[in-house]
Amino acid sequence: MISVVGPLPLRTFATSRAAGFANVMTVKALAEFEEGFLRALKGNDLYFIVAKVKGEAGDVPAAALDSQGYKYLFVRYIEKSEKLKILTSTLPRASDPRAN
Fold it and tell me: Quick check: is 90 in a domain?
């Protein structure tokens, strides 16, 4: 599945049909999307659905961690679940009492 944000070229239908999509549709309402998506899910053909939506900013809470924090959280999860060591530190930490 490809997700595109922003305006699509005018030749979207011709290009998607040339790429082998038997069913191409543009939807503007949630009900149209649900109908097209369910049809695509039940069918055995390729579908290309263009959803025309209004871009709005939502109320999204601030992230609990920054990107580095999430990286380390993910790595530690993999280390624990797979019982292997990915990241090792050879330098003492500033908070380590042995570093002084």
Answer: no
